[in-house]
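Notebook, p. 212. Picked up where the previous page left off. The plan for this session was modest: take the two constructs that came back from the sequencing core last week, fold each one, and keep the raw output in the notebook itself so nobody has to go hunting through shared drives later. Recording the first one now, exactly as returned: residue sequence, then the structure token string.
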Amino acid sequence: MTFINSEKQIFIDKEQGLTKPVHASNVYRDTLFLASDGGEFRLDLQQLLNPKDRIDSLFLTHFFVNNAEYPLKGEKLSLKSTENNIKVGIETNAHPFPGKLSFQYKMKKDSDWQELDSNEIELYFLQPSDYTLYVRVLDTSTGQKMERELLSFTIKPPVYAQWWFLLLSGMSILGIGLLFSY
């Protein structure tokens, strides 16, 4: 059963105790009455449509680089060009209905949100660049959304693509060319 107000969409099913099919419903004042094979249910619509937020934190549970656990020390990570396969676990605080949570992520502020099938993000063959991991969790039992920036990191370009290597290579070629021209 889905409830919608101007700001939230709330989904109730067997996880909240609604296990039998609903055959009839009626609203009287601020109470929704439901009749099902399991009996009569009374729902306070004010409490249902304006629930307290259940998510108050979002954090990393693990961080793997190339299938090896990588320590997070708080500062922005700087990874080598070969360290470009990443796995990140994310969690929220203890939630009474974890099946009602869905996770999304994006790697750049202006990119689109990507849906996740679980609370783990796996990214393979990342190109050298600066990245910021943004995570959004949606709680369909309350309609709450929480977005957080969880992690920033840089994947450095390979040595042969860094400015100082290109400058030294150019100067070496120029020097060799001048040496043979005399």
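Okay, moving on. Second construct, recorded in the same format:
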Amino acid sequence: MAPILEKKWIIPNLLPVGLTVLVSPVRSGKSWLATHVALAIASGGLVLHHIPVDQGSVLYLSLDDNKQRFEDRCACLTKGHPIPDALTLETEYSTIGCGAKERLREYLLGHSDARLIVVDSYRKIRRLVEHQIEDDRDGYNDDFEDSRSLRDIALDFGIAILLVHHAGKNSNPEIGGMMGLAANCDAMMALERTRGCPQATLHISSADEIEQNFMLNGNYQLSA
């Protein structure tokens, strides 16, 4: 993981300033959890029903979903309340190496109150084949450089970047191109959930080797 720095938090003791990778198999609820976190920060609400957070602007790159699907998920999570004005949604974006880093910095320069960027998911923003590093057969160097550049942006602006990534069925963070990402992340989140089951377990490990487990219920509905 990334070198240990003095810890600063976007969500106290849960989401640090810097780069956090959220990983689990496809359709295990990663996007629901990421959207819940984004809505809580954009509205200044509660995360996981009991953790208060400071309000700030959020950029959500919902690159695996269209606008309607994202809005439907938000409506479920907020019990029909409007999406906060502080949340900016993008469903198409540049890749790393083709303008993504520049666009992220431009957004942050225009939103001094920004606290979070969600990239959902990494496979849609990672550098294209023609921009890959030579002799990088397993993608480690590409993932390493991509994650380092994203972490640099997060630290420069004092925000969190939550990078959603699909993993193999066993959710091992070293499977599915995770080794290069893990080298630069400040925290790693693994969501364990049986499809069709409302309960889930969120495993969190940080660069300072602190590990936490949270039992989650339902669809991460925001507390009133």
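Notes on construct two before I forget. The longest strand covers residues 18-24.
Flagging for discussion at group meeting.
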